[in-house]
Q: What sequence folds into this?
């Protein structure tokens, strides 16, 4: 089959999706889910939601909410001039939660009818009643205003309106460019996601949201034909809360050229000498360090031990709130569900709480947690900061990470200024492998590019670099952060947590930052090579 015909056939025959159902089960194709969602009038959804709230009250529930969701995902993967996979899934369903006798009850279904919703409410009340007999601490929700609102990710072009042919042709162009300038292999993908949610509560809120995010990326690999050693580098494009406009605006060809050139340099670069060195971390790398050593430790449910069985706990326990000197005076980190282009950005969380920003770290001092309506009271807070999220209509909302970002320095300082001010250091770009303990305290990170700095100048590339430390010592060693002109987002589509496991998208912004006298490892030596 010709490539063009294959692309056309893929465009016409996308796989459907299977829907789990706590009451029954259905199998729908993607187009069926989209047609169903688009056919539903808001007044019709509200009528069914109101019926559910009324029935919950009849059955003695103190609180109830309803969420109708449509999740759509499209992932196109290529390598060289081969389409490796095209996968489009779409699911549609609802869930209901009730609080009865201070205990949660939950039920969900992929069959959206008034009869099925009432059936789910009745089941949720039965579950709450049964569980209340063994509930030790009654659930108390923080107060929340009533909202009637609609919110949408600001996008210029919907990725799902762009043809698969156009996306595949762009990916093939990227791969061909990489191969033409010396890459032995190049793989690339475009991953698009759309979440649509309608939330209603017995308190009177009615909220509709349409959320978009996209992740384009490539990876080039260069092989030394004599030794068989190879090196790779990912693109520096990021997953982001935007539409297809991000793909059209990003300069993939320049990134490809740089990626291939630098990957060739990595093959010839000298191995690093272990020891204490200053490091400058670029935002394409620093986002992951923030995620693991600040994002996760400031999740209140982890600090309370609720995630110990799977995701771990936190060394930032409640007795340290307001007391722990987490970092130097330069360190200011915010939790933010409103940040422009953030993956965790939205108008409201899945508790119906209006999103906001708040301080997690202020001038190095630990000042705040991430909370939901259920857990805010455990630290004496009178309201939630909007961190409830579920990744499916079939899952219960839990506390999930907002966009957690390191604020830029206030003094004018560019990356070139920071390098010029560094006598002996390593400049690290791109995220690599990482390891951190279950309390988010002791860690080790690698990256993608490592540049040797001597007497204020970059003198060449290094390889086999990793740095290690503990969270408190590391962030207290930060003595400079570049200004807002150097600020950019990084992030992940797939932050995992919960049982059953859930995935949550989250962004982390930063400007380049310097850390003094960090312990540098040689990864080859550590591996015994």
A:
């Amino acid at each position: 089959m010709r490539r063009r015909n294959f692309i056309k056939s893929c465009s016409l025959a996308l796989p459907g999706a299977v829907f789990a159902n706590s009451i029954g089960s259905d199998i729908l194709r993607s187009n069926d889910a989209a047609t169903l969602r688009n056919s539903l009038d808001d007044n019709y959804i509200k009528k069914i939601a109101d019926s559910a709230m009324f029935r919950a009250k009849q059955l003695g529930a103190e609180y109830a909410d309803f969420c109708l969701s449509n999740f759509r995902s499209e992932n196109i993967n290529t390598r060289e001039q081969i389409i490796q996979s095209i996968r489009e899934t779409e699911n549609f369903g609802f869930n209901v939660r009730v609080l009865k006798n201070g205990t949660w009850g939950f039920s969900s279904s992929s069959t959206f009818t008034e009869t099925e919703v009432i059936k789910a409410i009745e089941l949720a009340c039965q579950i709450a009643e049964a569980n209340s007999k063994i509930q030790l601490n009654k659930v108390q929700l923080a107060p929340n205003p009533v909202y009637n609102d609609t919110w949408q990710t600001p996008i210029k072009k919907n990725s799902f309106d762009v043809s698969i042919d156009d996306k595949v042709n762009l990916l093939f162009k990227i791969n061909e460019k990489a191969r033409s300038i010396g890459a032995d292999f190049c793989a690339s993908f475009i991953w698009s996601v759309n979440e649509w949610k309608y939330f209603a509560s017995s308190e009177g809120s009615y909220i509709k949201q349409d959320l978009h995010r996209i992740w384009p990326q490539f990876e080039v690999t260069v092989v030394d034909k004599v030794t068989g050693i190879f090196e790779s580098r990912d693109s520096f494009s990021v997953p982001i809360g935007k539409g297809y406009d991000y793909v059209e605006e990003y300069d993939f060809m320049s990134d490809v050229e740089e990626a291939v050139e630098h990957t060739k340099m990595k093959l010839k670069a000298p191995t690093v000498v272990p020891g204490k060195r200053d490091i400058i971390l670029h935002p394409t790398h620093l986002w992951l360090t923030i995620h693991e050593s600040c994002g996760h430790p400031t999740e209140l449910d982890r600090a309370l031990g609720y995630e110990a069985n799977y995701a771990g706990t936190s060394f930032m326990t409640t007795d340290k709130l307001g007391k722990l000197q987490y970092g130097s005076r330069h360190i200011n980190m915010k939790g933010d569900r409103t940040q422009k282009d953030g993956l965790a950005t939205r108008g409201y969380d899945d508790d119906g709480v209006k999103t906001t920003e708040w301080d997690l770290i202020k001038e190095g001092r630990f000042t705040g947690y991430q909370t939901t309506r259920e857990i805010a009271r455990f630290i004496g807070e009178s309201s939630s900061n909007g961190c409830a999220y579920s990744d499916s209509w079939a899952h219960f909302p839990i506390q999930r990470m907002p966009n957690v970002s390191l604020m830029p320095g206030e003094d004018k300082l560019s990356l070139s200024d920071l390098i010029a001010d560094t006598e002996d250091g390593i400049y690290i770009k791109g995220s690599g492998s990482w390891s951190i303990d279950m309390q988010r305290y002791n860690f080790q990170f690698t990256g993608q590019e490592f540049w040797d700095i001597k007497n204020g100048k970059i003198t060449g590339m290094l390889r086999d670099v990793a740095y290690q430390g503990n969270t408190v010592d590391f962030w207290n060693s930060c003595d400079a952060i570049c200004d807002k002109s150097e600020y950019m987002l990084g992030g992940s589509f797939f932050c995992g947590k919960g049982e059953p496991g859930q995935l949550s998208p989250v962004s982390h912004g930063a400007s380049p930052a310097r850390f003094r006298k960090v312990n540098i490892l040689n990864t080859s030596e550590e591996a015994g090579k």
User: Anything to note?
Assistant: Residues 114-132 form the longest helix (19 residues). The first strand starts at residue 17 and ends at 19. Residues 179 and 343 are 32 Å apart (CA to CA). Residues 275-526 form one domain.
